[in-house]
Amino acid sequence: MEVYSNDNQRDQTEVVKQFFANNGKALAIGAVIGVAALVGWRFWVNHQQNDAQASSERYQQLTTMLKADNPASIQALASFVEQDKNSYGALASLTLAKTFVDKNDLPNAEKQLVLGLQDSSDQNLQAVIRLRLARIQSELKTPDEALKTLDAVKGDNWTGIAADIRGDILLSKGDKQGAAAAWREGIKSEVSPALKQMMQTKLNNFS
């Protein structure tokens, strides 16, 4: 039994030696690739974190400097929206859109919000942008576009607000029944008491 055991160990040793003789180069290359991939991944993560921090600092700087009567500050933030394709770019588009609304420049407000939708994959942030965009599109007399924008709003948290806006848009189109149905849906959803009361008041106007 002992002789068999020793022979078996020697056989295994020879097999291992032969395996590394035949595959040693490939294993070495694989190890190098594995290490390189790990290093590359860590570099990418650090790069992403540094980029996010830089975007955050730049966003805060530009929004602090933003003034409606200062075209240079508006242009600086608009450039940031076009260049920073991330959530900070989307947040900047919201800020810039409000500035344009305050200036009664609705076409540019719409343009900024459309850009903002391309900059973030965050569902809640996209919902906020779409809700504001739908309002502006309604003011621009493009109610069908506004309704399409609302259709893309995702998340139960936004159902009530979207229903309220939908009701207003449908009413602007002369669809009183559709508006009333939208507000009834909104009242059933999880919304603030103030918004629920507002929609109920709108419904009461039809009675």
TrEMBL record:
Principal localisation: membrane
Pfam families linked: TPR_21 (PF09976)
Lineage top rank: taxon: Bacteria
Localization in the cell: Cell membrane
Transmembrane feature ranges: 26-44
Keyword hit for Acyltransferase: no
Keywords per UniProt: Cell membrane, Chaperone, Membrane, Transmembrane, Transmembrane helix
Membrane topology of the entry: Single-pass type II membrane protein
First and last residue of the signal peptide: none
Record-annotated Ancillary SecYEG translocon subunit/Cell division coordinator CpoB TPR domain positions: 17-205
Family according to the record: Belongs to the YfgM family.
The name this protein goes by in its record: Ancillary SecYEG translocon subunit
Organism this protein belongs to: Rosenbergiella australiborealis
